[in-house]
Specification:
By secondary structure, the chain is of the alpha+beta class. The strands form 3 sheets. Strands 3-11-10-5-6-7-8 form a 7-stranded mixed beta sheet. A hairpin with a 5-residue loop joins β7 and β8. Bound molecules: iron/sulfur cluster (SF4) (3 copies). The site of one iron/sulfur cluster has 10 residues, from α8 and α14.
Length: 491
């Protein structure tokens, strides 16, 4: 298609995407009055969805079936509280001096007109238990014009991208030059080559991690009041997925405190290299413990997939109970220590870490990679010091050979090969997003599917208005095994 036709098609489809929701919004309807009784109980509302037409009048009664609950409606000035048998409404006032203040009055109903169309969440404002932050419901005022706009413009955007980019790869992407960050920033290369680099980067995280374990064990038992939960499962989790992996791939694994004590123990060193001239089991190091190799049959990420599925099955409990987070960290710490006494390399990270599994797959999309600068140099270099170790650096802890590495999945970005390469032939390269395209094996494919399922399942469970799904996931409080098993089966 010519450029002119392409632009015309995109403009025409944009007009359609705008006109259709507008036309739906202009369909006339008669206004009505709705008498609605909303019952609240841990951790949902009944009904959890209220659907009315724009201009309708709502006469609302709010009550609780167990503890005190709140009802705050986004987009409308409606704030209620219900105790057993009584309902209160909050009023915003100003005193004589002009200061804002609040007052509560006892009411039997509140009446308001649904004058704004769209979807509005109502949520509990009284801390009522572990899942309090997820206690929500929805008021849908039809026609839901913002939603219709969102859908039609999304369809238009995808359609336009197909039309625009489906023609040819723009030459500027095809010619993208990989740039070595260590050449652009020579001071970074000096820092990365320091033997103490990894230790210094891990140490602050290790201290924070230790404090979080203390906070999880002895801090507030309410999830959204405990710093460990707020930091780990809200802030860190978001930053990891939205910023760290897209920009730096597995760079988190460089600074992760979880496997560090095990690595220090097995090396019997915090930073220095313990080199042995005669190779032992093909490596120039002797580690503590049995120094076995991980069984060949399970050198894949199936175990990580299974552990990740187990983790997300108990995700609701994990992110709302600080004690569960502490236990998870301590179990991982114990597992890494135990495994380091049996196996060489970072077998926990490579084959067991539930987070590591998805970090590997997701890092294929990142804009950073560690690679050999010139593969021919690697072919001619007989010693392969990056792989088997040398006096300047440990053998790759992730058991990767950088000389033929062409994907990010199993490189923990530990920067050890930058130190151990005597030819100065390893770089950290910038590249276009999503440069690794090939998934190798059903284990990786399944991992990608799990990541999609998690996004959908957690959105429905935590952000959706369906209290019965929250009840099913919240098995340690509800003690209802059958709904929990159905929830697991659904995931
Ligand atoms: S794989 Fe897991 S435990 Fe290992 S470094 Fe990465 S996040 Fe930490
Ligand atoms: S030590 Fe350097 S040159 Fe040798 S194989 Fe490894 S990356 Fe290539
Ligand atoms: S390839 Fe290099 S950066 Fe990647 S894990 Fe191995 S030693 Fe570390």
């Amino acid at each position: 298609m010519s450029r002119k036709k392409t632009i015309l098609l995109i403009l025409f489809s944009f007009e359609l995407a705008v006109i259709i929701p507008l036309a739906i919004a202009l369909i006339p309807h008669e206004t009505r009055r709705h008498y609605i009784s909303v019952n609240a109980r841990k951790y949902g509302y009944s009904p959890s969805r209220i659907i009315v037409d724009k201009g309708d009048t709502i006469v609302l009664n709010f009550s609780t079936l167990d503890v005190t609950h709140g009802f705050s409606l986004d987009g409308y000035p409606i704030k209620l509280m219900a105790r057993k048998g009584v309902m209160f409404q909050k009023h915003a006032l100003q005193d004589d001096a002009g200061h804002d203040m609040n007052d509560w009055s006892r009411v039997s109903t509140v009446k308001f007109v649904a004058y704004k169309s769209g979807k509005f969440t109502f949520r509990c404002t009284e801390i009522c238990g572990n899942l309090h932050p997820f206690m929500t419901g929805e008021l849908i005022v039809k026609p839901n014009t913002p939603y219709h706009f969102f859908i039609s413009l999304s369809v238009w955007l995808v359609f336009s991208m197909f039309v625009l980019f489906g023609r040819d790869v723009p030459p500027r992407f095809a010619d993208f030059k990989h740039r070595n960050v260590l050449d652009i920033l020579p001071w970074l290369k000096t820092i990365v080559k320091l033997r103490s680099f990894q230790f210094l980067i891990i140490l602050p995280n290790f201290i924070v991690f230790y404090l979080f374990i203390l906070s999880s064990l002895w801090g507030s038992p309410v999830g959204n009041r405990n710093i460990a939960i707020v930091f780990v499962w809200i802030l860190w989790w978001f930053v990891l997925k939205a910023v760290i992996v897209p920009l730096g791939g597995r760079i988190w694994c460089l600074m992760c405190p979880l496997p560090a004590p095990a690595e220090w123990l097995s090396r019997r060193s915090l930073a220095a290299v313990r080199y042995v001239r005669e190779p032992f089991k093909k490596l120039h190091h002797r580690f503590s413990g049995l120094q076995r190799d991980w069984p060949v049959k399970i050198r894949n990420i199936w175990l990580q997939n299974i552990l990740f599925l187990i983790l997300i099955s108990f995700g609701m409990i994990l992110i709302t109970r600080p004690i569960a987070t502490a236990l998870l960290f301590l179990v991982i710490l114990g597992a890494t220590l135990l495994l380091s006494l049996i196996y060489r390399h970072r077998v926990f990270c490579l084959y067991l870490c539930p987070v590591g599994g998805f970090l590997g797959t997701y890092s294929m999309a990142s804009m950073t990679e560690v690679r050999a600068i010139d593969r021919d140099v690697c072919k001619k270099h007989k010693d392969k010091s990056c792989f088997i170790g040398c006096p300047e650096g440990w053998a790759c802890p992730w058991n990767q050979y950088v000389g033929n590495m062409n994907r990010n999945n199993y490189c923990g970005l530990c920067t050890e090969c930058i130190k151990s390469c005597p030819k100065d032939n390893v770089g950290i390269f910038l590249r276009p997003f999503g440069s690794d395209k090939i998934l190798k094996g059903y284990d990786e494919m399944f991992n990608a599917i799990i990541m999609l399922v998690v996004a959908i399942a957690f959105s429905i469970t935590m952000l959706g208005p369906w209290g019965f799904i929250k009840d099913a996931a919240n098995v340690t409080e509800t003690k209802q095994i059958i709904p929990f098993l159905i929830y697991l089966a659904a995931i």
